[in-house]
Design a protein that fits this description.
Helix content is about 65%, strand content about 10%. It is α+β, with helices and mostly antiparallel strands and about 575 residues long.
Amino acid sequence: MKPTINPYYSFTILLLFLISNCGTLTAQTIDNAPSLLIKNYKVLADSGYSFKQILLNSSPGFTNDSLNRASGRYYWGKIELNNPYPNTEHYIVTMPQLYSYTLYNYTGKNHIWVRRQAGLNIADGQRVPGTVLCTLLPNTKNILYLNIDLGEGRYKYPVKPAIRIEKQIVFEAREQVRLFAYLLCIIALVCFLCYNFYLYLHLKDKVYNHYVVTQLGALFYLTGVDGFFNVIIPLRVVYLNVWPDGLTRVFDINSFFMHVGVVLIFGALCQFTRAYLRTGQFMPGIDRLLRLLPVVYIIVEGITVISAATRLYFYFIIAANVLTLTIIITCLTSGILAYRKKIGTAAHFLAAVTLPALIAALIAVCNILYKKPIPLLPVLAILSQIITFAVALVARVKEINDSLNQKAIEGIKLEADSAAAEHKRLAIEQENEIITLNISLEKERNRHLQQTLEAQQREMVGNTLHLQQKSKLLADLNKQISDIDKQNVDAPGAWRDIQSSLNNNTRLDDDWSKFKLHFEQVHPDFFKNLQEAHPMLTKYELRLCAYFHINLSTKEIASLLNIAPASVRQAKTRLYKKIKINNEI
């Protein structure tokens, strides 16, 4: 229920007050203008006066003075407004720089004065602090009284804030537009934030991570710059300061989250630029600058927040906005350089960043020149970045899909190559097994041939020894017949024929053909190679070479040839010399 004053007292006091003060004050007349700014109004230092005393004029008169904390914490203010129209007019009174105040308004209904409280310290759920509704009766002069609280130590210097009255219909229409724009941006931001966070969880792409941080910063900034934290959070934390020249600075929870928002937006924008354009790979110098700028920006914004209680705030806020312009220019320059380097993602990056970056730059310029942004520019910047960044992120998804498809193709190709390599490996293993088997068979065949060779070698040596024994037997028989012949000179000619036959057998019948046959079976191509290398060798010398090759002793060769061992050694020496001479030739 709205606080009221007894109607009977109100009516009586109002009549006495109008009679006693007739012609002493000049009332301001309202017109069809949507708003009226009142700078000159009467004030009175409160010395414990009640509202009844003020109405009865039992206090010192109001003067056109300033509000001075040195003269007291509480003041009364008086405003006269003339409504020349036949209808009751409803206006919104706004005093955004007062700690708190109470407005007394005579509505005429039930002859009561309505009391409404507002101000920076009043958690009334209003987006704009210090706004209250007042009613102006038709065809009469309306008097508004203000009971002002300057707060404890808030106003160190005299101040007299202007009072703005605005038609309720205009005020509410503007608030509806701001609320609609705010809700539109918030809904779009939340939807895109959730969607991009979902994509980040699935794709693990840092581009989406940085964009989510940018959108989170946009949520904080938009809510703070439009003052909706006053509506969302039922708590007022305000720092208010006044300087000698009348400059007033209000720093509240909205201001704090505005600074947090711009840090998130432009810090994440730098990281988004690095990840999207891959500056670390293509533009290392720009990449180092983009890594440094967010750190400097956080430091400057931190100092700006800390200095809110001092006049240095106004200088640091300019430095922060200049740094904002620097980040915007750096990001746009990065996109242009990447486009000139024909980096594939540069065109989409420029399409996404250019429009919102230019609007953000305009906001920064307005903050530098006018100390506040143009209304609805932040909304326009956020809506534009939602639309343009959506195009860039769709292109990013397409790029990722193309990359995944390329990797899938490469995976299929690699799998096919692996299968081919495995097939080749198995073929090589089979071939190796066959080669191993052939080697094993060849070894077995060689072993068998070696055994056969050794058997034939033993057989050939045996035959040679047999020939040697045969030759020795024939030689012994020949010697015995010679002895008999010497003893019996008159022996018949038959003995001589037998002895002649034995001698011929000793020289000729040595089974050389059989020996040569066995030898060539054991050592194929021996005689052929020997004759090709030494064509001057005689048959006798070839026979000696064969005996030497199978390592027969001198005595064994002498027995086979039926000659003396010394003759064998002499023949061997001549043979080696002949072979050596041919080699030298």
